[in-house]
Amino acid sequence: MNKNVSGTTTPDDLVIRAQGLTKTFDDGRLRLQVFSGIDFTLHRGECVAVIGASGVGKSTFLHLLGGLDAPTSGEVWVTGQQMSALSVAARGHLRNTALGFVYQFHHLLPEFSALENVAMPLLIRRTPRKDAFQAAGDLLGRVGLSARLEHKPGELSGGERQRAALARALVTRPACVLADEPTGNLDTRTAAQAFELMLELNRELGTSLVVVTHDLRLAARMDRVWQLEAGALRAYDGADVQASA
Ligand SMILES: Nc1ncnc2c1ncn2[C@@H]1O[C@H](COP(=O)(O)OP(=O)(O)OP(=O)(O)O)[C@@H](O)[C@H]1O
Ligand SMILES: [Mg+2]
Q: Residue 126 maps to which CATH number?
């Protein structure tokens, strides 16, 4: 990428750039167009919330940004690399090094403990086991799970699983975390703490955040709020956020 995409912005500032994204689900029986040409840029260190009604395409949007699903047309660049131009292995490597995911449904591995689940992204990167478990234990402590290290996902509450999933997304200190309703199952106080942890990481390490949330009060703490509606992404007015939160 060598052209200036938005006035004063240089490509190095962009953690994610998406251009002309469309997505159509078509299984031959049902055809559903979810997006009709979305452009999106996320700068280094920027924190944004994505809001929108159920079924509007928020999870699909995060999957496209993170290379977990391919757009029907359009392109996504992650830290300057064009996702569609990469091999499956290279795309996986980029995901593992540059991105952290918090899925809408936690996706923890059931047969592994919380500690092992959180250490996993580091072990995949061949971080020495001692360091990986140390980092995983530290982060589990920061999400309030230091007494649950040996519990398997089935032995954790829904909110505890979500916090473990958050720790797993943050453990590699990625350039960007894509989080799909990371606080959806949490009580107000724990949700605020989980959000705070993400914002702390943003301040400490410049990690960019894209967070899908239904909580307008939490959304208002981000740099920008985007609303997905009728296949389009538009800036959501901050005053509205405050008023309706
Ligand atoms: N694999 C798929 N095949 C067909 N349709 C799909 C598929 N995945 C999602 N959809 C449809 O695409 C639309 C967007 O789904 P998505 O999961 O992105 O919504 P969402 O905004 O995240 O909703 P929620 O707030 O309920 O999580 C929905 O109408 C859904 O039914
Ligand atoms: Mg969703």
A: 3.40.50.300
